[in-house]
Structures are given as C-alpha cells and as structure tokens.
Design a protein that fits this description.
Length: 669
Amino acid sequence: MDSIYVRCLKCNILILIIIKKKKSLHVLVSVIEYKCQKSNRFSTTTVSPSVGLSREQWAPPGRHRGSTSGSSSSDRLADRQTEPPFWVGLLVLLTVCLAAVESFSHLSFNLCKWCEVSSPVCQDSVCHSNCTLSSFCTVIEEICIAIWRKTNETMTVLTMCHHPSLPLEGVDPSLLLNFTSRECHMVPQPAEDGAMMVCGCKGEHECNDKLIFDKGANGFSKLQSKEVIPVVLVSLVPPILVAIVATAAFYFYRTRRFGKPGPPARPDWPGKQTPELYQALDPPCGGLHSREGGGGGEGGGGGGGLGGITGTTDEESNAKVLSVINDVSGEWQGQLDGPLPVKLEAVVGKGRFAEVWRARLLQGEKNGGNTYETVAVKVFPAMEYASWRNERSIYSDHKLQHDNIVSFLAAEERGAPGHAHRKYWLVLAYYSLGNLQDFLTVNLLSWEELVAMASSIAKGLAHLHSDTTPSGVPKVPVAHRDVKSSNIVVKSRKECALCDFGLALRLDLSLTVDDYANSGQVGTARYMAPEVLESRVNLEDLEAFKQMDVYSMALVLWEMASRCQAIGEVKGYEPAFGSKVSEQPCVDSMRDLVLRDRGRPDIPTAWTQHQGMSVFCSTITECWDHDPEARLTAHCVVERFNALQNEEEEGDSLLFVVSTYTRGQQPWS
C-alpha cells in the first residue's frame, strides 16, 4: 500500500500542478485518484503523463523491468493482472491535453487603467490613481504604465498601456525594459518643474492603479508615531469645538432674525390655469422656447388681475444682477440695483446641473395694466456654481452673440452669500417649440425644413469654433463639448439655436496642455466622439476639440434625417444608435459599440434615392469619420448646406458640391 500511495501521490501532484487554476478539471482528477486507490500493485516509478505509460513501467514490485525471460506462466499471468487498464493512461493524457489547451486559451492582454489625467488618492506610501477607465492593451507585449507628477501642491497621474521598446517622453528608455513586476513601484525621473515618478507592471489586471512609493516620496505620508497622534488630537479638539459652537450660534441667529430659509417664492398668477409640466428625455435646455407671439414679440398683456411685483422675499432682497445685455426691457435699463421683476411659473425642463422655468418678466404699464414678456430662467443650485459661472461667461461675451445661439438676457445671484438656498439664475429667451429632440418626436420635416434647420445648427457651431466674428473682429474659439438634440432649441420650423454651455471650453492660446487635460472627459456618452471615449484626445491641437463637436453634430443630423419625409417611409423618432444601446448608455457600452465594433447609426439605401438626401447623408458620414482629422469642419458643413439650399432655390439639377472653403472665408455669417 505504501508504494501505491507514493505513486498516486506523485501522479496527483503532477496533474494538480499542471491544472493549478483550472477548476473545471478537478472532477477528472478525482476520478483518476479514485481509480489509483482501487489498484493494489503499482510501482513507485515516476510516470510521465505527456508520453503515456509502457508495459515495463507498470512492472509489479520486486521485479526488474524487462526481466521476463525464464518466468513461469503463472508469473506472466500475474504480470498481465498487474498491468494498468488502458483508461488510466488515456485519462492522464487527456487531463494534460485539456490543461494545456485551457492554459493557452486563457492567454490575454494586460488590462490597464487608462486616463490622461486623474487626481490620485494617497495615504502613507501608496497612491491610488482614482482613474475610472480601464482598457485592454492592444499588443501582448505592452505593459501598464503610470506617470505621477507633483507641481506645487497639485498631484496628477497619467495611466495607460505602453510598449516598453518604444520611447516615452521624459522617461529613461532603459527603465521601461526593466518593468517586469506585478506591482507598480515608483521610480524618480528628472523633471523641469516639480517632481515626476514612473512605474510599470504587467501580469496583474489594473496593476497601475496602485502606486507604491518609497516611504515619504509622495509627500503625503502621515504621522504614525503613537506618541505623536495623541498630541495632534489634543491640539485639534479645542479649535474644532469652538468652530462647532460658533457655527451653531450663527445658525440660530440667522434663523431667529430672518426666519426659516426656504426656496424662492413662486406665487400662482391669478386667473391663469396651472400649466402642464413636462420633462424631456435629457433636457438641459428643454424649456428654452421661443417668445410667445412669434418673432420675439412680447407675451400677452395680462389685465388687472396680474398686478405688479408686490413685496420681496429674503432671497430677492439679496439678489444681485451681474450682467445684462440684449435690451432686457427699456423700462428697467439703469434701474437694476435690485433683482429683475421676474416671476417663475412652471418647471419646463430639468438637466444635470439646473432646472429650467418658464417665467414672466415685467415690462411696464400699458393702458392701465402691466405688460409682461415670457422668458426662460435657468436656476442653478449653490453646488453648481462653477457650471453657472462657466455658462454665464459664454453667454455674456457679446462676441458670441449669434442668431443661432440662444439669446441671453441677464445673470443673477439670488439669496444671501453662504445661504443654504442660494440660487444662481440665467435669464434667457423663451422658445415655445421646445428642444429639437422633443420637436422631432412629434413632428416630421420636409426636405426644405431639414436643410434649413441643419444649416442653422452648423452656422451656430461654426460661429462658436471661429476665431473671428462675422465682421472680422478677433474672438476666442469655443468648443461646446455637449452637442446633442436636447441641447438645441427650435426657433421656427426652419431655424434652430444652440444652448446649454455648462461644459463649454474656451480654446484660449494662453492655456497650457495641463489646463485642457484637467477639463476631464465630459459630455453625454451617446454623443461622445471615439477619441473622447478612448481618452486619446490630442490636447496640443485645439482643432481636436472642435472636431469632437462635429462628430456629435453628425449624430444630431442623422436624427433629423430619420424624420424627413424625403426618405420615404418614416419611422418613429429614435436617438442616435437607437436600440443598439440602452436609453442612457454608459461610457463602457458606447466604447464597445463605437471603438471595438466601429458602429454608427444605419443609413438605409432608401435614404440615398433622393438626390439631395444623398449629399446630406454623405456629409453626415464625413462628419462622423473615426479619424478626427478626416472629418469636415463646421464651416465646410455650412458650405455644403448653403449649396443644397441654392440648388433648391434655383430649381437646377442637384450636383455634388465640393466645398471650396478656406480658413479666411466665413460662410456662416
């Protein structure tokens, strides 16, 4: 039995080593082990499962292999009885083959964290990259890399896949070839300003997420001494208690003097029915409708029941009008020390950063009664101050005013500074037809309407991207970075305007690459360009930001084309990519569809039967090209659509027009 135990043990150890991580083959191993225990005559000779078993190897104990001459017939019979059954060798060989096949089939590339910039979270001698994106390397030799930088008191981390044989800016080439560990140990590298460290690793998924420093190297090591910690706690407790008491006292003082804080007063208008509320699919500016009465006309007069603005709340008494343009009202020019006389009526849209209200702005008295103008008010909570400030700076730049950009009236701060219910307002023009997404849901477009509306969108985007105004005055180009159908309003059945500039970015030449890198991966996943999904934007080329907008615009143009009567049978409205993704797809699912599968919305052959639609579809496909540099510019798109409109007006046969736009021309004006 000892020799049987040794032989089975060796056999099992050999097989278990081969299939150490192959859980699926444990049942097969158990069968072999069981059959070994059932046998009673095994030698301790080592068996090689890769070559099978020979008769000599299975000789019974006490006899020399190959010494069969002179043996009795009974001995030969015993030999045959002690020979292992054929299935033993077959099972061992099958086990090894399956283990080898499964081992090779599980070969995979390194999975690495991949962000152009992220803010690490550090404790003691370890930092975590805080990167939320991961990607498989494209070549099996590529390793995971992390580059840590510290400038002044700001730390950033760049994570990616990289082939060690290729040079990496600022990193010693010989160092890359030495990164073979499964952990990312940081190695200092010379830097022009601040500090820089690099690490590389492979063989472990997302191994470049955890960055290991020599103790204290990252500048964030904490005091660990048992003697120091009590001293620190004793030192901090008194100031913390004083701060808590002071805060509580201030809160009770404010509550007793001004009353309990609350949201802005929203009294109902006498004699008017409560309006129906609605919320678009993704409507950051869903309530920016055209002024009632058409063409910028004022809203209805109102009659005696409407009354004037009577009384002010605590929020209104602290309101501050920061900027007013576009002649809000002749009655109020020069009288803007307090808040604008605006009354909120109903929420008509709700986005990521703000709510949009339909409101009325008092214009003055006429024929014994007050007159009002319907406006849209975008209300930001205190926590979204940065988004409000960014959007205000875009809207208030008079060089960005354009017929195809939503008209801006005023910006206000409402509520006392530091007040829990402080709000930030943007007062904008009101467009009754709603946003483009809602409009397309319930309306079909004629061919003329499609070309006119698409041309107006391209003109608005071209004006943003241009470095001069239509009159030739220099201006800073702006990238919208969130172009989609719910961020476009319909002014009329032949004109649209861009809105929602909360994520817009000024492409100022004075900004550095780091400034642009810190802007992050923004936008709506469904409309993100491939290079944004892949986090591989060329930050040194400002045109790259503009071409992201062009890709997004192409998806909007496809949505418009899908609702045009010129294509024949028109189906119900679907956003770009339709049912290929969920209603609100995440970045990962869009990355699989757009990057891995090179997917784009379908353009059926029936669409191209119409001559004009054929040119329109060709323009769309050139705008969503995978290569940003191969895409048309917004200015070229304007040229294409201008040519289509001219051909329609002249009644000539439609020819494909190649844009002759040069950088000095401005066809969008």
